[in-house]
Amino acid sequence: MRQRLLHTVDDIGAFKRSVLRWAQRFDEIVWLDSNGHQNSYTSFEALLAVDGLTAISTDYHNAFEDLKAYQSQVNDWIFGYLSYDLKNDVEALDSQNFDGLEFPELYFFQPKKIIQIQGSQVEFLYLDMVADEMQSDFESISQNDFEENIGFQHGQPSIKMRIFKDEYFNKVSLILDHIHQGDIYEVNFCQEFYCEGFDMTPLPVYERLNAISRPPFATFMKLFGNYLLCASPERFLRKVGTKIVSQPIKGTAARSLDPKKDAELKRHLEKDQKERSENVMIVDLVRNDLSKTALKGSVQVEELCKVYSFAQVHQMISTVCCEVKKDENPVDIIKNCFPMGSMTGAPKVSAMQIIEALESFKRGVYSGAVGYFTPKGDFDFNVVIRSILYNSSKKYLSYAVGSAITAMSNPEKEYLECLLKAKAMRQVLEEV
Predict the structure, then answer these.
(1) Residue 411 pLDDT > 70, yes or no?
(2) Which Gene3D superfamilies does the annotation name (predicted)?
(3) pLDDT category, 153, cuts 50, 70, 90?
(4) How far apart are CA 202 and CA 259, in angstroms?
(5) Which single residue of 23, 198, 215, 388 could bond 229 by disulfide (Cβ 3.0 to 4.6 Å)?
(6) Among 87, 222, 239, 250, the one annotated catalytic
(7) Can 328 be counted among the known catalytic residues?
(8) CA-to-CA dists, residue 79 to 20, 52, 221, 238, angstroms
(9) ω before 202 within 30° of 0 (cis)?
């Protein structure tokens, strides 16, 4: 059972900064921040989970069934991630590419302490065993009365590319051959940037990344020595009661400091047929995935190819919804949609086979999902993009970017889109 304590806070921005720094003492942290973005599907301003009582960590073998058993047995809030390579549990696929990070392929924990922020309200949800610490924790956070232990940074990372421009062009040409032969319609092709032997202090890097991006699905995750610093603009899947919501992104354009030029860039994206066709293909794929568990006739496209503006880029987003039976297992709903179509392509299985053959790294948590389940079986997960991943014991840092390759793709433009998406990650790392 959990005890609740509610407080009103005058300066939520300062409280958010303080609570995340306070949390660094724990081995397990998931921090989810909507950065003030508000729409009909926004769940909260921020949500923090720390200090696992129980946990599940596994590879892809039977992973979704293991997660289903764990979620049902715990019957409480659980937080964690699903790596992209759980595709191997869903389909007859494998993952043989290089893995510099070596994270578990699935990890969830039941936190002793949860802190939820909504407006000026801060709600503490603590398990009974630590409920007597709610008031003292609130006072400590509010007064910054705790010892900060976030470490020190040593030098700048020497960032390398897993593949170079010519090889990227060659692989995109092979993908286009598959498209022209009718094997696939679209593939999300990704590349890795990495650094070895780097001592990084993750929290300040996350704070800088979040400050320049301000995305609606930001995440700071620490699981012992493994870190995710995520500035994702994309929701994978949300469940509230019997309603399921997916909001795939396909279509990207740069921002400009000149308001007139910025407005023109946005209008150009809205009318860009290549970008719209990418988005529509993935919407069709999402509709098909949702239909596996949806009530008949309930799958609806609420919003198609709407352009939203973020700090770094304009993005084309669609919203697809459906209804499910009240007793539909939440893990099964996710499994039927996993991995998300925006990070694979269409048809999904063929796209994933080509991804495995042509990409030079194992995606792991990148293009997977981070989020939570509630005791009622509701859930909300983002798409892990625009993210820095770091294994502190190996001192290995990685960030990956990709773009959708279709019949209308120009390899040079796709390469430039990847560099645009990588800009924020490189910028914050170079500021070290």
Answers:
(1) yes
(2) Anthranilate synthase
(3) low
(4) 34
(5) 388
(6) 250
(7) no
(8) 16, 9, 10, 14
(9) no
Question: What is the number of other CB atoms lying within 10 angstroms of the CB of residue 241?
Answer: 11
Kindly report whether the peptide bond that precedes residue 111 is cis, defined as omega within 30 degrees of 0. Answer: no
Which one-letter amino acid corresponds to residue 123? E
Which run of H or E residues covers position 6? Answer: strand 2-8
d(CA 231, CA 267): 24
Whole-number average pLDDT of the chain:
95
Among this protein's residues, is 250 annotated catalytic? Answer: yes
192, 234, 356, 359: which one is catalytic? 234
- Each residue of 195-240: pLDDT tens digit? 999 999 999 999 999 999 999 999 999 999 999 999 999 999 999 9
For 148, phi then psi, to 5°, come to: -80, 130
Q: What angle do CA 82, 195, 344 make, to 5 degrees?
A: 35
The predicted structure's pLDDT at residue 149: 63
| Strand ranges (E), 198-328 | 217-223, 226-232, 235-240, 243-247, 249-254, 300-309, 313-323
Handedness of CA 162, 213, 16, 7 (dihedral sign): negative
